[in-house]
Amino acid sequence: MRPSVTKDMSLVSLVPQWTDTDKGAHLNQFFEAIEIAARIGCWSEADMVQLVILRLSESARAFYDGTRELHDRNTTWTNFKTIFRKRFRNVKTDQYYYTHIQTAKQGKDETPQ
Asked: What whole-number distance in Å separates Cα of residue 112 and Cα of residue 41?
């Protein structure tokens, strides 16, 4: 007989809210935080999907609210992530970031970092 596993939902507080802004963590970092907490807390895929829904804000929450496919009870964690990654993918090219770094200037009151 297998011992029962208890879910530790207190780890929810470690997962930050997420929105699609430059200030927030990258979407992959957000998903990774959820997956790490899920492994430690013995959460199911359904728990992870529900947690994402709770932690979305602003444009990310609006996207979720407007996407019927995400509201399906049979939506898997993998499918949920795929839909979000398609919508919130980074559209800036490597050339954009290279140029941004090359043209960066240190402000008067800024440190070199």
From this structure: 40
Please, where are the H alpha helices in the chain?
27-41, 45-55, 58-66, 77-87, 94-102
Q: Would you kindly state where each structural domain of the chain is located, as residue ranges?
A: 26-89
Q: What is the DSSP letter of 5?
A: -
CA distance 102 to 82: 33
What does the pLDDT look like over 27-56, one tens digit per residue? Answer: 888 899 999 999 998 999 999 999 999 999
* Pairwise CA distance, residues 62 & 66, whole Å: 6
Contact between 38 and 47 under an 8 Å Cβ cutoff? The reply is: yes
In angstroms, the CA 82 to CA 88 distance is: 10
